[in-house]
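INFO batch 0412 | record 1 of 1 | parsing
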Amino acid sequence: MIILILNCRGFSINFHLFDWSKRTVLARGDVDRIDLGDSFISMEVPGRAPYRQDSECPGFGAAVDLLLRSLTHPQVGPLDRVEQIVAVGHRVVHGGERFSCSVPIDATVIEAVRRVEALAPLHIPPNLAGIEGALSLLPHIPHVAVFDTAFHQGMPEHAYLYALPFEWYEKYGIRRYGFHGASHCYAARRGAALLGRSPAACNLVTIHIGNGTSLCAVRNGRSIDTSMGLTPLEGTMMGTRCGSIDPGIPPFIMQADLISPRDLDKILNQRSGTVGITGVRLERPAFLERAADGDPRCLLALEMESFRMKKHLGGYAAALGSLDAVVFSAGAGEGEWLMREKVLDDMELFGIRLDRERNRAARSTDREERISADDSTVAVFVIPTAEEMVYAEEVAALLNGAGG
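INFO prediction complete | emitting tokens
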């Protein structure tokens, strides 16, 4: 059973090709700089040298075509023909209240996703563009939407409702949805496994740290709260997003600087967070290097990030009542020992004691590691995320009649 997984983002597609009958990855890679010029594909096939090919991709349809041609390339591709692919799974960031599980994609699903575009304006357009491009090239096989928000659909009302006029929820669906669901789901499962327990028998806080960052309180395998809300803008401070702020700030600044709602939305999503504080757009390693060199704005941004994350972690420990493990995941969560150290410093009150040497040594993106001290009541793990495994599992379940 060959399954293709597509994660379509702003100007790129991350893809994984699975032989799901063997639970093996046949290929993985990215198509980058879609619509920007100088597009290229990079691909890794186990047992072969890495492959890269420059090829202009004026849209996501062209990008999907390029990756399909690469997957079936006689010298570098793992497939003989594209017909070997039996299904395609698509990451979709927001499913609103309508989608609490993965679903086969049809015109009705596409239209429903389009209606929640305003709730994830940076993500839904490329998600839909990738879906439409793949459907046009692979029209005769199932395509499945796997929603980031689905893992959080079991949150209780008191967690997902805002203290706003109730009719706003009834009329517009204004509530907290949460994101990074596949990542939190995977991290919680693996954290439980490292504890030697079933996911249904432990409480964890999972922390996904990337350009977008979110935390999740997981009780007995289910999300009971998460830091992102109606949109991916809520929560802790992020790379370009402000996270939670005083709701009085937007109307104040709109009036003071005569900013339109659309322009303010772009500022809060794209020019805030670490970028807003430092005033420059840096890749994460360069940002950390500047902080280590004493750049005051970078140091300030790092302190702000870790302080806000620490507050969320403490709040979720309280909400869960008892805590068995904390799991750091995703790119920065896996690789940034300094961020983890700052977040976990002085957390003995919650039973968390960090082993600093283990933490500083844990920088791998392909190895699961425990970074808590031996006498720490709460275990702390660094677990490389494998969201694509969750996507493929969801697709396979639907194909086998076990989804929904």
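INFO post-check: The radius of gyration is 21 Å.
INFO record closed
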